[in-house]
Each structure stands twice: as C-alpha cells, then as structure tokens.
Amino acid sequence: MKLSILDQSPIASNQTAQDALMESLKLAKACEQFGYTRYWIAEHHDLPGLACSAPEVMLGFIGAHTSKIRIGAGAVLLPHYKPYKVAEIYNMLGTLFPNRVDIGIGRSPGGSAEATNALSDNFLQKVFKMPELVEELLHFLHQDFPSDHEFSKVNASPIPDVLPLPWMLGTSEKSALLAAKFGLSYVFGQFMSDQDGAAIVQTYRENFQPRIDGQTPEVIVTVPVICAKTSEKAEEIALSYLVWQLLIAKGEGKKVPSIEVAKNYILSEKETEQFMAIKNKMIIGNPKEVCSALRNMANHYGADEMMILTITHSPEDRIESYRLIAEELL
C-alpha cells in the first residue's frame, strides 16, 4: 500500500508559526526516509492554529531540502486564483524539482468570509465556475488550447520536462464527477464528509473519462490517524487534536492544546457528542490496530493510496506516529 502525508502545519500551544513551519520541514524529511510517497501541505487563511497560508512558498522550501518524495498542495483553492498563475507557480516548482510535483485542486475558501473577501473577489461566483477554471488550468498545463483561443499562444513558463500532476480534492459526488469529467486523479477527504464515501469514489470510477490514452482512475483517501506504541498512549495523544477541534468549533481553538490541558477540559453534553463524532472518523491505536484499519479502509474504498493527517501537540509524537505506521506497512 502506498502511504502519503497531508500536513496542515498546526501550531501547538508552546510554538510560534515559525516553529510549526520548521516542524513541517522536519516531518517531510523524516517521512521521505520512512518511504512515504508524497507530502502535501494544506492552504488556510487567517486561522490562528494553522501556519500555512501559501503552500507554494513552503513547497519550494521543502523541495529544496528533500530529494525524492513528491510534494504538492492539498489543496490549491482554485476559486481564489487565476488558473494561469497557478500553472506558472507549479510549472516553476516542477522545473526546480523534476517529476516530484502534484497540484491538488480544491474549491473551499480555506478561511472566514472576511478573509475570503480580502483575498479574492466574487468567490462564490468563481465556485460556480469551477469546471471552467479547472479546464483552463489543464489547458495551460498541457499547452493545448484550441488554436483560435485567446490564450493559445500564452505559455505558463517555465515548462518543465515532466508536468505537475493535477489531482481533484473533494468530499462529495460533485467533486468526484468533476474529477471524472476531466480525467483527474481523485482525493476523497474522509474526515470532512458525512456522506457515503465509498459510493462517491465508485461514482468517480464509473464516470471517469481519460484525458490521456491509457489513463486509469486513481484514488487517494485521506484520514486522520494517531499511532503510538500502545493503544492507551495513542488515545492519550489524540486528546489534544479532539479537544482542539471542539475549541475551533467554539471560535477558541487558537493553538493545539497540550495533552494535560486536553485531559482537564470538561465536556458539555453536546460536546461529548461532537467529540465522539470526530473520533469516529479517526484511526487511533497501536501499529497493528492502525495498519489493520488503514488496510480495511483502503479495501472499502478501493483506494490506491492512503493519505494520513496526524496532528499532535508534540512534534515528536507526530513523527513517531508516521514512523510506526511506515515500519508496519512500508
């Protein structure tokens, strides 16, 4: 099974944003050594507990300090941007780091309504035009606009020898059908969806239209995971993430709380339900438990690859979680 990393560059309560970004670099370097296939970093705006608002900057930094792991965004929030600029950025990365660059494409705002308005105009209208934006981006990447198109002679320079690989990220049938229509590989965000994920992935496969001869559908499923040497330790470590999610929902989740703070957090009746709902979408346990659950989930979805999101208060616990999983599965 292929394994990959989704990093949201979380900021722990004892860290600065710079600390968190440097830990993201350490994570990418460690996971390259562990044998993970790709490292993707997410894009968020004006969210105090997450450090990365510009994945393209971090990818240049991480690409320069690694040598073989694939790097990419999870995701480029395309309605914020002109497709031409996105193509330029990722072609530039593809030129610097040959045959290592992915473009994960998403449609969410990645932040508050106010941050969205500060970042881009007419975001909702752009969301409705997502199919046109995706098509335009693909044309710029493949340099295959019709000859009578206004952009037919516009190149997203520099053009790398191996083009960045585009992926569509999503949590619904709508995103699955969009990926299928344009012959894109698909990443399903299991932890962000309450829908029947396996059915959505099946819809993607059934409707897939190859863009290139011989192309076949490819699926990654993303899931939050906490692994430790014992189940009890994993449960304890996971408390930080779980309580942080509750705090975020209340507008109070500025940074990832310590395990001690999380242990002392008193749950209301409503929060107890929310806590369990979040936990039920995670995989938590010792290496054998976690890897068995990952295999089962991959089989359930028919996934080609599993992408793991791990958020802990301690950077050491996070790297250890990825290490233990790699030792068991890779």
UniProtKB/TrEMBL annotation:
Gene3D superfamilies membership: Luciferase-like domain (3.20.20.30)
Alphabetized Pfam families for the sequence: Bac_luciferase (PF00296)
GO MF annotations in UniProt: oxidoreductase activity, acting on paired donors, with incorporation or reduction of molecular oxygen
Source domain of life: Bacteria
CDD domains: Flavin_utilizing_monoxygenases (cd00347)
GO cellular component: cytosol
Occurrences of domain Luciferase-like (ranges): 1-297
Family the entry assigns: To bacterial alkanal monooxygenase alpha and beta chains.
Xref: NCBIfam families: oxido_grp_1
Protein name in UniProt: Luciferase family oxidoreductase group 1
High-level lineage: Bacteria, Bacillati, Bacillota, Bacilli, Bacillales
